[in-house]
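agent: user wants the full assembly modeled, not chains individually. Plan: 1) parse entity lines 2) check alphabet per entity 3) run joint structure prediction 4) return tokens. Steps 1-2 passed, two entities, 507 residues total. Proceeding.
--- entities ---
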Amino acid sequence: MIQVKNLSFGYTDKPFIRDMNFEVREGEIFGFLGPSGAGKSTLQKILIGMLPKYEGSVRVNGIECREHEKDFYENIGVDFEFSTMYEKLTARENLRFFSSLYQRKPRSIEELLEAVGLLSDADKKVSDFSKGMKSRLNFIKALLHDPVLLFLDEPTSGLDPTNNRMMKDLILEEKKKGKTILLTTHNMQDATELCDRVAFIVNGEILALDSPHNLIMAKGAANVTYTWQEDGEKTAVCPLNEIAGDEKLRQLIVENRLQSIHSSEPTLNDIFMDITGRTLV
Amino acid sequence: MRLRNLILWDIRFQAKYGFYFLYAVLTVLYVVLLFALPMDLRRKAAAILIFSDPAAMGMFFMGAVILLEKSQKIPCAFAVSPVKAAEYILAEVISFGAISEIVALVIAVAAGVSNLPGVLIGTLFSSVMFTLLGMIVAAKIKSLNQFVLGTVPFEIICFVPAILYLFGMLPEWMQYVPQVWCMGLIAQIDQSIMGIVWYAMLILLLFFVAYRNIERMWNSMGGAKL
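--- prediction returned ---
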């Protein structure tokens, strides 16, 4: 669905994105993860054809991005992080307007509004919407023409936990329908839950690319942390696969002195920090 | 189909943002003003009114339309849609042309103009030119003040020779200057049909510049300058 070969791009003479190579397969959810200014949004803009002056090759749906025609967007849906709606029009009017721009038969506006819990607000002006409501409306605007490829920029940003869950379920539902989804996010938990594969982007380079599970398993085994009382509370950590050889733990179990014991896997965030030396801010 | 939809939605936006209401009020005022003038001045006054307002409204209002769209990041939505810059431009030109024609018709009838088709053709030609000029400036600016300043040179270049021509204060060859030629059509002054050649060349040039400016505006709204 997407092939990127030797991609370099710079806003000035200095390259901002350097020699990137990756592929996105049809039907997968692919995540771009990285701190602010890492190059995620620039990469997304190149992929959606907004920055044609790049070096290398970027093919989306078989079309070289720098050579795309406007009908390229009949098959692509883009959900920007910010609202791109006419504030003085109602939600329904906005969706009717934007659906009228495509040749493809639009999806049912009523069903889409209902799916994101906005049906009862359909006839309210967008200027009266909260940030979270605008975010949900923006998301369904990207689905209106039923595109095969979706670009989602921070789709859960500004959503409360209930709507966050709903949004993630909707994204997974689109994947089930066979859509390819590119997700740009800061949120490691969302990425772990949603993405088939993720790319860690720092300073315009991909530092790691794999499934969240493989990244976690490759970089760190699960640990067991246990506590006991001995002149105050003591804590020890031991790798799960070496637990049988931990004498202290065996002794505490025999003496029935364990206060707590739990296993923990590293999170994607831990792996990101380990690989990139950066946190997601 | 998409162009038709864009035109219909543009007309709805213009109605929603009060353009039609504003021009209904202005038209009544213009008609009252015309009736207050002596008969021998009415036709020239009507020509100036039509040329400087309904015909030129596209130039004044394109600033408002594009600034409003920029503030709501609508250019980003257009940039990633199948809408072509040419379709967007044509829709604005046609929708503003429609209001211009209605208002010009009412003013011309009130002034007792006999050759209404001539006035309507002149108004339409002027409206296309002014809307394209407004779009060219609006696509480049970030505030209403910048727009007002940016359009002043075009207003002087367009209005001064046209009004001087109306009062016979320009040499004959000036009739070929497109804005003067348009005023001649509205004021029903006998002039050469060859003026259309220069007018068409100007419109092609303005369309090309507007197209380039709109495309640049759409693609740069994502935060990156090209």
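agent: reporting back. The first helix of chain B runs from residue 2 to 16. The mean pLDDT of chain B is 90.
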